[in-house]
Amino acid sequence: MKSENTVVGLIGEMLNPVSEITGPKANAGLKLKSENAVVGSIGEMLNPVSEITGPKANAGLKLKSENAVVGPNANGDGDGVRDLGNGSSVVYFPRFLSYEKSWEYFHYLDKHIPWTRPTIYVFGKPFVQPRDVCYIASKGLKELIYSGHKPDAHSWDDYPPLKEILEEVHKAFPGSHFNSLLINRYNSGNDYVGWHADDEKLYGPNPEIASISFGCERDFFLKTKSQGEVVREPPSKRAKKNKVEKHCFKLKHGSLLLMRGNTQRDWLHSVPKRAKAESARINLTFRRVMQMSSRRLLL
Ligand SMILES: O=C(O)CCC(=O)C(=O)O
Ligand SMILES: [Fe+2]
């Protein structure tokens, strides 16, 4: 996770990514200070969370999937869009997949995914990622490299349930074309992902990230990037940069959360440690790697 001028820790901790993807400025200005946390090495800060804004979604947004348990009648529990302002928004469906099916997926993934807990390098220092991970990607995509680590890209074909879930996500968001997936397993409340934005260049300028959760409910926080972190626009255009805004979602078993618009440009997200989270959680983040031609983005 980094942007052209900012290094905020890819996928929670990955700074220092690799030239092709990240460009030469990746290591500039490494310690970023926000009002509540020092974002920087590793993005592993367990920042105090305050002034979390409550749910105010409920835009009655309908999903198009036949199999997914979604839509305005599925529950009254915050379905819909949360507008973050300035072109950023989050769509949340607490019950995207049924309870039973979600446990089936959980157990399948827990058992069959070739989990790794790689050592990455932050400021040249080795650091073990604080959760298990796995990367799935369509063939022929640009490689994902972060913090001196290049995850093996596994094939969708080896994990039919993942293709099934991908299909549900595509049905839910017509026109979406996710082609890669980062899977996280948080074995306990000690596992976490620090503040970061999924803003690598290979995802294009306004990446949409679809996140599905199974198992233990965990808090998912969003906060605005503070001064110095959002640098692509003149001060007059930045969203209230001096006031850190926060949002929280309790990501339920079977839920879907989509980040879209300017969310990766203007906001950071995290899943902090939680002493009370005793069981495991598996999270899927679907992404689209843009295929670049010499002159234009291939869609
Ligand atoms: O576990 C989650 O809900 C978020 C994971 C995440 O942000 C990531 O993989 O980039
Ligand atoms: Fe992320």
From TrEMBL:
Keywords in alphabetical order: Oxidoreductase
EC numbers, comma separated: 1.14.11.33
SUPFAM superfamilies in UniProt: Clavaminate synthase-like
Binding site for 2-oxoglutarate: 184, 186, 196, 269, 281, 285, 287
Broad EC category: oxidoreductase
GO molecular function terms listed in the Swiss-Prot or TrEMBL record: broad specificity oxidative DNA demethylase activity; cytosine C-5 DNA demethylase activity; ferrous iron binding
Record domain Fe2OG dioxygenase: where: 177-290
BP GO annotations: DNA alkylation repair
Binding-site positions, substrate: 123-125, 199
Family: Belongs to the alkB family.
Protein name: DNA oxidative demethylase
Organism in which the protein naturally occurs: Helianthus annuus (Common sunflower)
